[in-house]
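User: I've been going back and forth on whether these two constructs are worth ordering. Before I decide, could you fold them both?

Assistant: Sure. I'll take them in the order you sent them. The first construct and its structure tokens:
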Amino acid sequence: EVQLVESGGGLVQPGGSLRLSCAASGFSFDDYDMTWVRQAPGKGLEWVASISSYRSTEHYAESVKGRFTISRDYVKNTVTLQMNSAKVEDTAVYYCNYRGDRNYWGQGTQVTVSS
């Protein structure tokens, strides 16, 4: 059974940092690109960042480029999103995602950026 379990969300002040983690199981983690997607209150899904399989090539949305870093650990089968210089507009539920035979999603973790 495929499982994606996000953790690390919470409340952070503007300018602060937060580290999100996604624990993956039930599929061949090494073979798939992994993605973080977010959904702000009242808005649709927004792609945040992706990391490719094997070479771990990173891609970022313009809104987070230079502030967020995506990484993956092939031993622990985890994907991490390091959020720095957080902004109020980063407030959202953050989901871990990969596309196998279909799209798989975690349950999400809430990130709130507020003073």
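The second construct, handled the same way:
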Amino acid sequence: VRLVESGGGLVQPGGSLRLSCAASGFTFSNAAMSWVRQAPGKGLEWVSTIYTGAGWTNYADSVKGRFTISRDNAKNTLYLQMNNLKPDDTAVYYCRYGDTRGQGTQVTVAS
């Protein structure tokens, strides 16, 4: 299993970013996939999950209405569209399959 995140960066409050996670080594289309994040000095926080089939999704209350998780099974890629970003969204973002995470991508929200 290999997960490689990208798309992080520095953005001003209210801005947007789109994270990507390239997956390999397993049948991506059959996998429930998640995004989790870790802010400085804090533990790991679940952000969102997308399931297979109809693509049912679920979000943490802290990001609901601002973040959108999606997947492209043809490209074995998971996405996280993040809008109206806030300083509290600053964290390293990881995609997760089961107990496996990638190396993460840093998102910093600051003016």
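Notes on the second construct follow. The chain has a mean pLDDT of 96. DSSP finds no helices and eleven strands in the chain.
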